[in-house]
What we know:
Blueprint: H1 9-23, E1 37-40, E2 46-49, H2 58-90, H3 95-102, H4 106-113
Amino acid sequence: MxxxxxxxxxxxxxxxxxxxxxxxxxxxxxxxxGDVAIVRTPSGGAFFAPASLRRLDGEQQEVAASxxxxxxxxxxxxxxxxxxxxxxxxxGLSWSAIGWCLGVTGEASRQRFGRRPEDD
Length: 120
């Protein structure tokens, strides 16, 4: 990681972990964490990038930064939905009602949010 990062080392690690969780079975978001640096975009934004992506031009950097922000937002929404499903179940909502709220069947919601590995 670079020392000019606007984030603390802990925050960088959490973001990299979050991106790794998002990537999941597709592979690691940071195969060599020592190779990852924060790259500043021409507009003042920033994104995490391995050495192979540091040569992007200005427009490509902006797009990469935007993509990372979107991926992190998607992860945060997924976590919020899971939390809300837990609260709905605790409040007594059926899987059918939860599925309806999510726009899927009750069975699909139960399969997606039922017993999770972290519950074991």
